[in-house]
Design a protein that fits this description.
two-stranded antiparallel sheet, mainly alpha
Length: 435
């Protein structure tokens, strides 16, 4: 900024700014010839006095950018130049004899006697290049990487993939040849015995039986592929449209409770996931799985998923041996201690429910005829009153305190005063209320 502007110069400058904003005057240009937006505020467009060069510019608003000193050229790292020296040179590495580094920077294996004393096996000098790089370029892990190295890796993987593809093709050819030989053998056998038409009929019958909704049949391999759910099946949440019915989780498609609780679950098509989970062979399968886990923990080679037949057979043998062992233990205990006659006694419920005593009761519960059944005795003393009381402690409650009902005394182990004590308490309460 050049000095202070006069009144006339300031007015002309303001008129020029207004004309530029209105579009009647051309916009100002910076030193690179680019137009400057006239609507930019003055405190942004004007440069500070210490960097103002007298030209309109927005360069002072941008951070100075130095060109990143990244190099695309390959520099030789760790490579050695030319033939090695035949004699040790003064100032060279005492270990390997190279003149491009000191002894403390040598990466060779420390020798028992270095090249300085032996003068043998002197290593070549390293190639040192002066590479000027910025802060970021020094820390770039791929700076100076030769892209030709990646091409070698790509070619190696291509060769491995080609070898794998050829191996797979050869295996498929062998399988096709084996299948063709088996098919020709079966055809010869069919022609010999004359039952080829019967086989075709069997395949058609098999396909007709398996042609059901939600299934796809392959007559050659005789396999069926069933979908996740037949579209004719009713969804779980449609069995009962009551909003207060069993909860349906749409995420897991599960309904644990029975949607029709008023009906017999055994007569329903669907009675909830829990009913299906604990019905049929589900519990047996769970017991076999538990047996397999326990046997595996004890070192036996039993696995429910890897070999289910073996697990089922071993579980059956285990149950038989367990039942046999229980019978053996029972017989040995009876033979040693006796008491076999008690096992043949009637059920305990029948013994307790049957009696020869005849008792008649009134409407109030009093015994009219017969003997009243004896009360069950306890190890604690019952109907024992102390200090002339006719009720037990805790039979009376008033003013957040327990007491005796017979005399309304709140003092435990006190002597009973009877009705006289109750009248005395009421009289004292009336006196206190009147005062």
């Amino acid at each position: 900024m050049s000095g202070k502007l006069s009144r006339e110069e300031f007015r002309k400058q303001k008129d020029l700014e207004a004309a530029r904003k209105a579009g009647t005057a051309p916009a100002a240009r910076d030193e690179e010839g680019r137009e400057i937006n006239p609507h930019i505020p003055q405190y942004i467009s004007e440069a500070p006095w210490y960097i103002n060069d007298g030209h309109a510019s927005l360069k002072h608003q941008k951070a100075p950018r130095d060109a990143d000193q990244f190099t695309d050229e390959w520099y030789q790292r760790g490579q050695r130049a030319g033939p090695a020296a035949t004699k040790y040179r003064k100032g060279a590495c005492e270990n390997c004899g190279a003149a491009t580094h000191k002894t403390k920077d040598c990466v060779e294996r420390p020798r028992k006697k270095g090249a300085k004393w032996t003068g043998k096996n002197i290593k070549e000098d390293e190639i040192l290049q002066k590479v000027e790089m910025s802060f970021d370029a020094k820390r770039d892990r791929w700076n100076g990487y030769d892209t030709a190295e990646h091409k070698k890796i790509y070619e190696e993987y291509e060769k491995v993939e080609e070898a794998r593809r050829k191996l797979k093709e050869s295996e498929l050819d062998k399988q096709d040849a084996k299948a063709a030989a088996m098919a020709s053998r079966m055809e010869n056998d069919a022609n010999e015995f004359g039952d080829s038409d019967d086989d075709d009929d069997d395949e058609e019958k098999y396909a007709d039986k398996s042609d059901m909704p939600g299934q796809k049949v392959n007559a050659k391999t005789r396999t069926t592929i069933r979908n996740l759910r037949i579209r004719e099946d009713r969804a779980k949440y449609l069995y009962n449209l009551d909003p207060n019915s069993a909860h349906y989780d749409p995420k897991t498609r599960s309904m644990r409770d029975n949607p029709l609780k008023d009906q017999d679950p055994s007569t329903l098509i669907y009675a909830g996931d829990n009913f299906q989970r604990y019905s049929g062979n589900t519990t047996d399968m769970a017991n076999v799985q538990l047996f397999a886990w326990q046997a595996a923990e004890k070192g036996s080679d039993v696995h429910m998923q890897a070999n289910p037949t073996q697990a089922a057979i071993l579980h059956k043998k285990f149950k038989e041996k367990k039942a046999q062992q229980q019978d053996t233990n029972k017989e040995s205990i009876l033979a040693k201690y006796g008491g076999e006659e008690h096992l043949d006694a009637p059920a305990r419920e029948l013994l307790l429910a049957q009696t020869e005593n005849y008792v008649e009761y009134s409407r109030s519960g009093n015994v009219l005829k017969g003997q009243e059944p004896a009360k069950a005795k306890s190890k604690y003393q019952e109907d024992v009153y102390i200090n002339n009381h006719t009720s037990v402690w805790g039979s009376f409650w008033a003013d957040d305190k327990w007491g005796y009902k017979c005399c309304r005394s709140f003092i435990k182990m006190s002597y009973c005063t009877g009705k006289a004590g109750i009248e005395a308490q009421e009289a004292s309460a009336n006196i206190l209320s009147s005062t």
